[in-house]
Amino acid sequence: xxxxxxxxxxxxxxxxxxxxxxxxxxxxxxxxxxxxxxxxxxxxxxxxxxxxxxxxxxxxxxxxxxxxxxxxxxxxxxxxxxxxxxxxxxxxxxxxxxxxxxxxxxxxxxxxxxxxxxxxxxxxxxxxxxxxxxxxxxxxxxxxxxxxxxxxxxxxxxxxxxxxxxxxxxxxxxxxxxxxxxxxxxxxxxxxxxxxxxxxxxxxxxxxxxxxxxxxxxxxxxxxxxxxxxxxxxxxxxxxxxxxxxxxxxxxxxxxxxxxxxxxxxxxxxxxxxxxxxxxxxxxxxxxxxxxxxxxxxxxxx
Length: 302
Description:
The protein is built from 11 helices and 9 strands. By secondary structure, it is an alpha/beta fold. It has 2 domains: about 5-215, no CATH class; about 230-300, no CATH class. The protein has a 7-stranded parallel beta sheet, with helices on one face. Helix 6 packs across helix 7. The relative contact order is 0.14.
């Protein structure tokens, strides 16, 4: 079905009439599978690392061999580490593989054509959806089968926007549904955030962004140009900061009731929260809280 051509694969997907399932393993699923800290771009979910409650099932989905079940994985131009991880795990490309970014970047300009093709679809997600799932379904375990039960009743295409949880939702649906009653079911992800959340949550949503014109290449291992030494250093420091933050988060949960937030979160919310005096890891690109905010926090501790 897929040729791993960014433009042609999008066309093929919206023209297909036979029932199929399409899930996507991108830069969010990768850290869950590896058990490392991560937070979504819009902070709708985050993990401090370790085992996420559906991690084992996520591995099962990635390695499934179900008929007409297609898997999108990260391309090297956008996430080289994730791309290498998935390809090593899956053993190379196959006809059942495509871009996890199929609805992003330049193809996002064409998302209306996908919506028109599936205008009567059942929408599964948080926000303005027909079947609701938790916005932060990664962190807290919830009843996936209850959602799948509603999907099994549908006689129309199904579009799912539920972050990494979309993979297990769609996989369970495809296994449980009678093959004669299966519908087209697609993980559309954040590409539908403008519809169900009515806001831009990703950089590629913005017309002024260079990501809005990016075309993914299955074999391009140079993400947006050559990687500089400074970028490598920043990536290493970011990884260290994430690991340190995960360690401190676990300590807070086990030993303290003090609310802990990183500097950029404190600045964004503008709330006066108690922050303990242990060192907070430096986050690349984040500014320090204002002097006034630090003063208020200190007074609350005294």
